[in-house]
Design brief:
Layout (H helix, E strand, L loop, with lengths): L2 E6 L6 E6 L3 E5 L2 H7 L4 E7 L3 E3 L4 E3 L5 E5 L8 E4 L4 E5 L10 E6 L23 H9 L7
Parallel strand pairs: 3-10
Antiparallel strand pairs: 1-2, 2-5, 3-4, 4-9, 6-7, 7-8, 8-9
Length: 147
């Protein structure tokens, strides 16, 4: 069943609507995705490029001879990945307004996978609103700690 959902960048300049077939997502651990996102992996949702309606066109970076990546040049949010010759594209899980709906089903680019970052369930967890270095700065700015 197709469902329409929304997403965009951190500053709100770039917004999109997309029709989705399901809630499957995947991690890409390749070095290009690591560098493009600044993380140990990129989390993506595969969609049909024709199913994405950009409310404001993103900026595009030709990240290799075979692919390019949409992003916001104002806030720097990476928004996805698309092969130059493909009909599909990937949108970053974190750019969706409701990223909690997605579930990872695969690992791509496994040659650069960092095992230590996969299972972190035993690590301590700290909420932003109870972390003094964060909460105090938001309070000083007169704002609540964002979700």
């Amino acid at each position: 069943m197709r469902e329409t959902t929304t997403g965009g960048c951190q500053c709100g300049r770039i917004r999109y609507t997309v029709a989705l077939e399901g809630n499957d997502a995947y991690f890409c651990h390749c070095r290009m995705c690591q560098r493009a996102t600044g993380g140990v992996a990129a989390a993506f949702v595969q969609v049909k490029a024709a199913d994405v309606a950009w409310h404001h066109q993103p900026d595009w970076y030709q990240s290799s001879p075979i692919a390019r990546r949409p992003f916001c040049s104002t806030c720097g949010t990476p928004l996805g990945f698309v092969f130059n010759d493909g009909e599909g594209m990937d949108l970053t899980v974190g750019s969706f307004d409701d990223p909690a709906r997605f579930r990872p089903v695969a690992h791509a680019g496994a040659e650069s996978l960092h095992e230590a970052w996969l299972d972190t369930t035993a690590l301590p967890r700290h909420r932003s609103e109870t972390t003094p270095s964060i909460a105090e700065r938001w309070k000083a700015a007169g704002l609540p700690v964002p979700d």
